[in-house]
Amino acid sequence: MLQIILALVPVFALLMVGFFARRHGFPGEGFWAPAERLTYYLLFPALLINSLSQASLSGAESLQIVMAVLILLALVSGICLLLKKPLGVGFAAYTSFYQGSMRFNTFVALATTSALLSAAGLVIAAIIAAVMIPVLNILCVLVFASEKGLFANLLPTLKALATNPLILACFAGVLLNLLGGLPATLSATLGLLGQMALPLGLLSVGAALDLRALRSSGRVLYISSAIKLLLFPLIAWGVAYGLQLSALASQVLIIFAAMPTATSAYILARQLGGDAPLMAAIITAQTLFAMLTIPLVLLFLR
């Protein structure tokens, strides 16, 4: 338990540094939006491309990992759909519930994997991210598009997905891997950029936390948080056990499953008419809850 907590302390410490720095106006309000754009459009794509281009994508285990991710997402998505009627909320609130229950924070996932499992874990994390990122984005868009009248907004949203830097980075990394990898000099350059992604990404996540959004929260927030932070990793453990994944692959899959929802979910909620204030509350609450649940979940499922 102590080993897990000590490994995660730097991750959550950077979240808090970002939170308090922005609240105290340091280094200035104009810093955070460009920093988030730099991380999202350059640094994290560099990390994903470099990791995937070097990953061992052949063999049975890679296929098992892909299958495990798809089964996991299908099971949890099915649970969310079954809860739609019992929740008794409107469509906008349900879309925030769905995103809060399904999506994961890439920044925190990769930083946690790096802290606990070092470089070997990051390679598997890149494979999992390459499957999860596009599939989850598509699932969330389909949930929005299922409501009558939202199909008019589907085309620009699909265009945004097709130009999503993380999705493009995943496909580019896989393609480069199949072509034999990157030249050593280019790989070293992307490696340096990738090293910047984790700390700056965590600072940006912390800076985006909005405690004021929690005032408008309700039971949807707590139910989605329970699914995302507790049920999701438990199901991931069952899938990993059932498919007999290696210990390392199982640990990385569970780490991804235990992550709080993505901050980008708020942008999608605003673009497609979801409940953006509820989404902001879910993001903030889950990020704070995760500081407690991630160590407990990883210890319990170890």
UniProtKB/TrEMBL annotation:
Regarding the membrane, this protein is recorded as:
Multi-pass membrane protein
Read off the InterPro entries from this record: Mem_transp_PIN-like (IPR004776), Na+/solute_symporter_sf (IPR038770)
Name of the protein in its database record: Transporter
Keyword terms? Cell membrane, Membrane, Transmembrane, Transmembrane helix, Transport
Q: Which family does it belong to?
A: Belongs to the auxin efflux carrier (TC 2.A.69) family.
Q: Where in the cell is it found?
A: Cell membrane
Under the heading Pfam families, the entry gives: Mem_trans
Ranges annotated as spanning the membrane: 39-57, 69-95, 115-145, 166-186, 192-209, 221-242, 248-269, 276-301
Gene3D superfamilies per the UniProt record, alphabetical = 1.20.1530.20
Would you say which domain of life the source belongs to?
Bacteria
Kindly give the PANTHER family that the UniProt entry links to this protein. AUXIN EFFLUX CARRIER FAMILY PROTEIN
Predominant location of this chain? membrane
Keyword flag Amino-acid biosynthesis:
no
